[in-house]
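Example record used in the benchmark description.
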Amino acid sequence: MQTTSANEPLRVTQEAVGAYEKRTGFYGIGKIMVKNGHGKIVTKEELARSRAQERNNRIATVQERGTA
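Model output (structure tokens):
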């Protein structure tokens, strides 16, 4: 699960948007998300890198608190 703030667009892959559109029949939702600033289409590699960075930040924060 991604953690985002209200100011950051949700990062999703084109494949995920395509699968959602196919499953729901709501074609064009990805384009609407990007146009309105609610989403950002990224590659699988970019998404994996950002998740790894979030995980590293979370681990560092927990260690600073002394709960790990």
